[in-house]
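Per reviewer request, we include the raw input and output of the structure prediction for the construct analysed in the revised manuscript.
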Amino acid sequence: MHELSIAEAVVRVATRHAGGRPVAKVTLRAGHLRQVVPSALEFAFELVAVGTEVEGAELEIEEVPAAGVCRECGVESELDGFPLCCTGCGGLNIELIRGEELLVDSLELEEESELALATRGA
């Protein structure tokens, strides 16, 4: 289950960028060709987030469709399945332009409480 290692990486990235603030939402862009199972990733995310700034955060997964440009005829095609072939000429010589990404696109952080701010300033 590669979703567990993906979830661990997402939580590490979010924690590093949160700067100690609680995270309300993490938006992840996952290319279709990464073959991420959203329900498995959400489950793994909840598990590995326990005890971190990310605990309880919503995980939004945006699937990016695969696309490529045919090196033979130049047609750009959305690539739904295998084999990855051009919709123009049926060729298999495709240069991928989308669909392999896997990145944390954005974080939504919660505001620090007044008590936490006062304690830090004292």
